[in-house]
Amino acid sequence: MLKVTQLSKTYHTPSGKIKAICDVSFQVKKGDILGIIGFSGAGKSTLVRCLNRLEEPDAGQIVIDGQTITGLQGKPLREARKKIGMIFQQFNLFDSRTVWNNIAFPLEVAGWSREQIKERVATLLSLVGLDDKSDVYPAQLSGGQKQRVGIARALANHPDLLLCDEATSALDPRTTQSILELLQKINQQMGVTIVLITHEMDVVQSICHQVVVMEEGRIVETGAVEAVFRRPSSATLRLFGQQKEPIKANQLTNRADYQEVNSLAG
Amino acid sequence: MPDDLLPLMLTGTIETLYMITLSSLMAFLLGFPLGIILVITAPNHIWPLPHLHNALGTVINATRSFPFIILIVVLLPLSRLIVGTTLGATAAVVPLAVGSAPFVARLIENSLKEVERGKIEAAIALGASPLEIVGKVLIPEALASLIRSMTLAVITITSFTATAGAIGAGGLGSLAIRYGYMRYRDDVMIATIVALILLVQGFQWGGNLLARSIDRRRHQFG
Ligand SMILES: Nc1ncnc2c1ncn2[C@@H]1O[C@H](COP(=O)(O)OP(=O)(O)O)[C@@H](O)[C@H]1O
Ligand SMILES: [Mg+2]
């Protein structure tokens, strides 16, 4: 579904060159959730932002669903982006638009009719559990609610791929869990492939199928989550492992807030 | 109170309002697109064109470095060309509009630059075109700030009209010079000053009201 080949990106700053990502290659199967994990500055954001060309890679190739994303310009690039959703750590909602109008934005841009937009927004509002917040402005929402709007906005135009750059890092643990459950539900029900950046091992272990571990712009470890975590070889994963005990799958269901989480996620 | 004071003030105020309205309108028509182009052609913005950006910036700075009274004199031939005369309120509108447009452009630029990078990136990621980003993100997101900027522009144009009055534009500025200064009419002088203060206060009050109502709606406790 997603195939990245020998991708590199160097930033040129007044203080010198920064090799943000270097010769990165990996693949994601359709319907999988890929977790990208690594310490701050490892190049995770740069990598993900290259996938929808918010950053311009210097070399390498990105292919999504058979379409080569690298090399696209102008309108074809914009059309490709309409099928790649993205959610952000800082949510990046439009303060000038109500929740309803935030979710309608990508549909307006994609040229949907008024009637189609109404129907789609209503569906998305109930998917993310915000039916009652339709006419509210983002400034009046909690962090978790803002991210739900972000998710609804990203999913509006039926993307094949959803990019999440530390989508839960600005949220408390409990809200984080409910957002993760929502992402998992979206992945399972809609079959959307997800690429998710995180610096929390729990996140990878609870919802990802596949993991990429990054250090200094390179992939140092990759594979199925279970296999990689059974025998971690990289310094990053060992250090992460020392920080705290990972949550095991069944521990999640025993958590006190799971009921609430579960009901939110439907 | 001399019986000519009221009619003098009335025509003066009407002429001034006429000049403010017309020149503000034209200054915005010229300055708004310039401000937008300045913002979006900057490096790393949605339509990067560094050469155009720098050229435009230089031209704007050059016109802004003229003292306004010099600018009027320089632009008077343009008035003759467009309006047919260099005297009167309508003739003054040309230099007023052209002279304030660069200032308006900078104000618009500053307001639009306040829109967070992340919001613009979200719009790009959703496949919006530069034009859609300007119309659906930049302007609506910066609306309260734009209104504050335009209020400041109208107030500056008000003071420009008074300056223009000194060289034959008519209006309150002209009254202050011709009656207040040359004929020692202290009553006219004081009345024009009061009228100008009231005008400026009125614009500021209206602008604040509008900007605050937008903030309040979006933030509830704005
Ligand atoms: N716009 C930029 N300009 C210059 N350097 C950057 C820019 N963005 C990121 N970097 C640098 O690239 C490296 C990787 O950054 P990033 O991809 O943000 O890492 P991560 O998301 O893993 O924390 C860091 O050294 C960072 O300082
Ligand atoms: Mg990052």
TrEMBL record, chain A:
GO biological process: amino acid transport
ABC transporter domain segment(s): 2-241
PROSITE patterns per UniProt: ABC_TRANSPORTER_1, ABC_TRANSPORTER_2
Gene Ontology terms for molecular function: ATP binding; ATP hydrolysis activity
Keywords noted in UniProt: Amino-acid transport, ATP-binding, Cell membrane, Membrane, Nucleotide-binding, Translocase, Transport
Signal peptide per UniProt: none
Listed GO CC annotations: plasma membrane
The organism's place on the tree of life at top rank: Bacteria
Family: Belongs to the ABC transporter superfamily.
Name of the protein described by the UniProt record: D-methionine transport system ATP-binding protein
Lineage: Bacteria, Bacillati, Bacillota, Clostridia, Eubacteriales
TrEMBL record, chain B:
CDD domains listed in its UniProt record: TM_PBP2
Record InterPro entries: AA_ABC_Transporter_Permease, MetI-like, MetI-like_sf
Signal peptide span: none
Residues passing through the membrane, by range: 20-42, 54-76, 82-105, 152-177, 189-211
One GO cellular component term: plasma membrane
GO process terms (BP): D-methionine transmembrane transport
Keyword Transcription regulation: no
Similarity field: Belongs to the binding-protein-dependent transport system permease family. CysTW subfamily.
Full protein name: D-methionine transport system permease protein
Lineage: Bacteria, Bacillati, Bacillota, Clostridia, Eubacteriales
Keywords per UniProt: Cell membrane, Membrane, Transmembrane, Transmembrane helix, Transport
Bilayer topology annotation: Multi-pass membrane protein
Coiled coil: none
UniProt xrefs under PANTHER family: ABC TRANSPORTER PERMEASE, D-METHIONINE TRANSPORT SYSTEM PERMEASE PROTEIN METI-RELATED
Chief location of this protein within or outside the cell: membrane
Annotated ABC transmembrane type-1 domain residues: 13-205
PROSITE patterns in the record: ABC_TM1
Pfam families according to UniProt: BPD_transp_1
Protein's cellular compartments: Cell membrane
